[in-house]
Design a protein that fits this description.
Length: about 130
């Protein structure tokens, strides 16, 4: 499955979760509900995926974790914040570089309309 197809399925699931729950809950709640929705759509979903840092050929566990990884191709970082900012984008770009994924989504569930809380991030060519 291509990254763009995975992204479409992800967004459908995220809109469903936001429609049911609305804003104001914990990030972990949205993560669990989104995993449930995505698994029901036949996507391979991993949550809290460890992301080691390789430094001078040494693999270091620095405690980084990707919120969701879909089909080992798309990264999803969930937020419950007033707004998405440059630090969130920098985090996503770093996770994408370290994981080798070319597509990522920042999704902020703490918004009235979910479409205003979504940022699609592409690294390189899809």
């Amino acid at each position: 499955m291509h990254e763009n197809e995975i992204g479409t399925i992800l967004l459908d699931a995220a809109f469903q979760v936001h429609k049911e729950l609305g804003p104001g809950l914990l990030e972990s709640t949205y993560e669990a509900c989104l995993c449930f929705e995505l698994a029901g759509m036949d996507l391979h979903v991993e949550s809290q995926v460890p992301l080691p840092v390789v430094y001078k050929e040494v693999k270091l566990d620095c405690g980084y974790r990707i919120d969701l990884m879909l089909e080992r191709k798309v990264i999803v970082e969930l937020k419950v914040a007033d707004t998405l900012n440059d630090v969130h984008l920098a985090q996503m770009l770093t996770y994408m570089k370290l994981s080798g994924c070319k597509l990522g989504y920042l999704i902020n569930f703490n918004v009235k309309q979910l479409r205003t809380g979504i940022k699609r991030v592409v690294l390189g060519n899809l």
